[in-house]
Specification:
heterodimer; A: about 325 residues; mainly alpha; B: alpha+beta; 3-stranded antiparallel sheet
């Protein structure tokens, strides 16, 4: 190993935080650009399934909460894009990668929000899974990423609570409402578990990511954490977990659970999920139709700057 | 025409009496928009009472590879700290 790389690894092993202008291996930089931008894209695309219900919330209370949550997601995307940009990639390049379908985002957002209960489920399970991952990432080795995570985690916990409250209300409601909640859990449970990524044995990035402290826990460890907390929460709601193999394992001190359909996961990752095309089309539409706004803002700023220069000259 | 909005660094005074501290960065066409965007992004939960924005290109930063020559000379100057000086037991208010 080269000296620089050895020094770098020593810094990581000592628990030091890496900052943008520090020397870093090219692969560390590239891995971070990939991971942080995927994370940012997930926040941005994640607004789409929720936006689907913004005009149809059952009450005004739900509407202001959902609006605030969606606005938070935009902010989270922005924190993350900013962190990625410290590694020497521009915002436009990042958007172009997303819009061209070259960049990935969390495949959970390629599933449709068919009922109001899905908004509750997204807050409870999808944000719940995101929190498990993000709490770990507050201690990741790259400073700007870790700091973005701290801000995000602070804001995210309201998201999960508002989701759980929606579920609770439905579960305490009529039989039809409860059925709606159950149906939503049935559809979203497995994709939520897939959010943690492929099993450790098949994960190509895990080993290096652990060494560089980009990740501090493996996909399977985080997934187990998700199963353990969710099973207990589902009991409070009175919902049935859609997995007959879920069973407390005294020896492991964890819940056992059934086999995940990884074929489905890879299909969605490769672009064949229920909403992949729709999501990308929505992002491209927003980008293209916003072009004149971006251009007009630059033209206005340049004109104002020219006026100021002129005023000084006179 | 294709031109990316410049990056601005954002500093927030969290409450009256405290200094402005760096909170993050964002893109904006000009300083007015940068302040508006900073308000939307960084103060949605009353995190601030005042915002500064500075275009990133205007910030000069020290180079991490010069850290030794910049900061090392302070390491062996313990006499700049009050604990360097010995006082007898019982001396008060000093």
């Amino acid at each position: 190993m080269q000296d620089l790389e050895k020094d770098f690894q020593d810094r990581i092993d000592r628990g030091e935080v890496i900052e943008p202008r520090d020397w870093m291996p090219e692969k560390y930089r590239k891995t971070h650009i990939r991971q942080i931008s995927q994370h940012a894209h997930s926040e941005i695309v994640g607004m789409l399934p929720e936006g689907n219900w913004l005009t149809r919330t059952p009450t005004l209370r739900r509407k202001v909460a959902l609006l605030a949550k969606v606005q938070d997601e935009a902010g989270h995307g922005l924190y993350l894009y900013s962190a990625a940009e410290t590694l020497g990639i521009s915002r436009d390049e990042l958007f172009e990668q997303l819009n061209a379908g070259k960049a990935k985002y969390s495949s959970i957002f390629n599933y449709p929000t068919l009922s109001w209960a899905d908004i509750g489920i997204i807050g409870w399970l999808v944000d719940g899974a995101a929190i498990i991952n993000q709490v770990m990432l507050t201690r990741t080795s790259y400073g700007p990423y870790a700091r973005a995570m701290v801000k995000i985690c602070k804001e995210e916990s309201f998201h999960q609570r508002q989701g759980f409250e929606i579920m609770m209300t439905l579960c305490n409601g009529t039989a039809v409402q409860k059925q709606m909640a159950q149906d939503s859990l049935n559809r979203w449970w497995w994709p939520s578990l897939m959010m943690f990524g492929p099993p450790d044995a098949e994960s190509t990035h895990t080993e290096q990511s652990m060494k560089w402290k980009i990740k501090l826990k493996t996909n399977d460890e985080l997934r187990q954490q998700m199963v353990d907390v969710t099973v207990e929460q589902a009991k409070v709601l009175g919902l049935t977990m859609p997995d007959p193999d879920i069973k407390w394992n005294e020896e492991r001190g964890h819940y056992d659970f059934g086999e995940i359909d990884w074929e489905e996961f890879w299909q969605v990752v490769k672009g064949y999920g229920p909403c992949n095309k729709e999501r990308l089309a929505a992002r491209n539409k927003a980008w293209d139709e916003g072009a004149w706004v971006r251009e007009a803002a630059v033209a206005y700023a340049e004109k104002q700057a020219a006026k100021r220069t002129q005023a000084i000259a006179v | 025409m294709k031109k990316e909005w410049p990056i601005w660094e954002v500093f927030i005074r969290t409450k009256n009496g405290l200094e402005h501290r760096h909170i993050g960065s964002l893109h904006a066409a000009d300083s007015t928009m940068a302040i508006e965007n900073a308000r939307d992004v960084y103060t949605r939960r009353q995190e601030g009472v005042s915002i500064w924005v500075v275009e990133s290109i205007n910030i000069s930063a020290s180079n991490p590879s010069n850290s030794d020559s910049l900061f090392d000379p302070a390491i062996d100057k313990a006499y700049r700290h009050p604990t360097f000086y010995k006082l007898p037991e019982g001396v008060k208010h000093i």
